[in-house]
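Let's practice the habit of predicting before peeking. Look at the sequence and jot down your guess about where helices and strands might fall. Then scroll down.
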Amino acid sequence: MTNRPEVPKPRPVHELQDVHDYLDDVRLRPSLYVRGRSVLHLQSILYGYSVACEIHGVPVTTDFDHSGPFSEWLWPRLGMEYSSPVGWAVEIERAAEAAGIHPLDMFFDLLDEFRAVRHGDAPKA
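Done guessing? Here is the structure:
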């Protein structure tokens, strides 16, 4: 029997505090949450989260709306002078393709940078 380090597991939904906790779980097992590991599908999930919050009168606690804080931070980070009409997911997929990396990996790298700048969070492992 080998002593392998235990791999973190996604938490039950009732243990999550906010959308960033959810994204931490998505990072652990992206194929479980996001069909095809697509950034566009992840963006749809996050948009649905915002809509559900609004419908149920819960203050929206996401940074990922089309013109939200993540988008506004992202444009200059990707070298863009103005916001993109196609949204952050498409622009990340384009940048990832040009860099030769998987778009979801780029999203999580960018998310770490965004959190460090905006929230003072340390990057996630």
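How did you do? The mean pLDDT is 88.
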